[in-house]
């Protein structure tokens, strides 16, 4: 059933710096709300249940995060791209005492989210500190406290301008800067959207692997085969990744999914050259009908 136009028009909204309208609307498919930027759903948040990770790729990120340290142990995390703070809320709920920094380019977007999808009280009063900084994700890495260098458990890169990842956030130089934050067992998570042939996703795997030795990819099976446009999650670390339980978790849902690792990653990246600042391009645009309700 389609979302009514009146409901979108009446929803809380703001105009971003490029003129795009961002809205917070009730989810047409499940409980909670969606943050829409233009016609693209950027985030889903369930205020009553922060563990409800509705978007498939976010659920897969959550599956990796659950393997870090001991269950329930606080994490230090940096999130590049805020959206509606779905993952920061999840970490705050499942790992009380976590310290999280979020870098978001759009102050108007953050104001919209803060006013209409408020953080849980425990986060607001510092029980699970979430600090939001306004600015470009790559530039913001250099403005984080020096003490965070080499001390972070998790860096999440999920930055989109509309439906595309900006070119300067896809390169060896960018991932090198992000990886400097990680402790020896820290993990980088990257959301990559791509379609037929997966040329962009393959280049991103090659690029991340040029910076961090251990890389896996999590995705819905048909997406990983390049048969449909979708999201792939790259997880990378200087240390061996905690993948023992991931295949079972992925098979359980959402949708039959796969964890590619080892030789499969070698074959996936093939001879693709890593992306540099000199060769970078934004991620591909999905077809206009992909997000139709």
How would you characterize the overall build of this protein?
- With 293 residues, the chain is of the alpha/beta class.
- It has one domain (49-269): Vaccinia Virus protein VP39 (Rossmann fold).
- 28% of the residues lie in helices and 25% in strands.
- The chain has an eight-stranded mixed sheet with strand order 7-6-5-8-9-11-10-12, with helices on both faces. It has a four-stranded antiparallel sheet with strand order 1-2-3-4.
- Helix 3 links the parallel strand 5 and strand 6 (99-104).
- Helix 2 packs parallel to helix 3.
Topology:
Elements: H1 5-10, E1 13-15, E2 21-26, E3 33-37, E4 40-45, H2 56-65, E5 76-80, H3 86-94, E6 99-104, H4 107-116, H5 121-124, E7 130-134, H6 137-141, E8 152-157, H7 172-179, E9 182-194, H8 199-209, E10 214-220, H9 221-224, E11 230-237, H10 246-252, E12 257-260, H11 263-269
Parallel strand pairs: 5-6, 5-8, 6-7, 8-9
Antiparallel strand pairs: 1-2, 2-3, 3-4, 9-11, 10-11, 10-12
Helix pairs in contact: 2-3
What's this entry about, in short?
With 293 residues, this protein is α/β, with parallel strands linked by helices. It is built from 11 helices and 12 strands. The chain has a single domain (49-269), classed as Rossmann fold.
Properties at a glance:
293 residues, alpha/beta, Rossmann fold, 11 helices, 12 strands, globular
The CATH class is Alpha Beta
| Average predicted confidence as pLDDT | 89
What's the architecture, going by CATH? 3-Layer(aba) Sandwich
Shape verdict: globular
Query: How many helical elements?
Result: 11
Unreliable parts: 1-6, 289-293
Helix-strand sequence = HEEEEHEHEHHEHEHEHEHEHEH
* Percent of residues in β-strands: 25-35%
Percent helix: 25-40%
Number of strands: 12
The CATH superfamily is known as Vaccinia Virus protein VP39
Which structural class fits the helix and strand makeup? alpha/beta
What fold name stands as the CATH topology?
Answer: Rossmann fold
Strand order of the largest sheet: 7-6-5-8-9-11-10-12
């Amino acid at each position: 059933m389609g979302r009514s136009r009146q409901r979108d028009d009446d929803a809380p909204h703001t105009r971003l710096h490029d003129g795009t309208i961002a809205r917070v609307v009730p989810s047409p498919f499940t409980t909670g709300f969606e943050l829409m930027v233009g016609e693209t759903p950027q985030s889903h948040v369930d205020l009553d249940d922060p563990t409800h990770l509705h978007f498939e790729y976010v659920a897969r990120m959550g599956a990796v995060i659950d393997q870090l340290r001991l269950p329930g142990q606080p994490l230090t995390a940096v999130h590049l791209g805020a959206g509606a703070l779905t993952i920061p809320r999840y970490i705050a709920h499942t790992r009380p005492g976590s310290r999280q920094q979020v870098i978001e380019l759009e102050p108007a977007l953050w104001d919209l989210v803060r006013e209409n999808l408020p953080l849980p009280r425990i986060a607001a009063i510092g029980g699970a500190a979430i600090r939001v900084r306004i600015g470009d994700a790559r530039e913001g890495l250099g403005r984080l406290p020096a003490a965070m260098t080499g001390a972070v458990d998790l860096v999440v890169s999920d930055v989109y301008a509309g439906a595309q990842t900006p070119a300067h956030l896809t390169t060896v130089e960018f991932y090198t800067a992000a990886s400097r934050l990680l402790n020896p067992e820290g993990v980088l998570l990257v959301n990559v959207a791509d379609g037929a042939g997966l040329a962009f996703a393959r280049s991103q795997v090659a690029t991340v692997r040029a910076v961090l030795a251990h890389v896996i990819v999590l995705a819905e099976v048909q997406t990983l085969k390049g048969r449909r446009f979708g999201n792939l999650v790259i997880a990378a670390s200087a240390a061996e990744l905690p993948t023992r339980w991931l295949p079972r978790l992925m098979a359980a849902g959402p949708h039959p999914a796969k964890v590619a690792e080892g030789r499969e990653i070698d074959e996936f990246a093939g001879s693709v050259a890593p992306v540099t600042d000199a060769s970078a391009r934004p991620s591909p645009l999905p077809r206009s009908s992909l997000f139709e309700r």
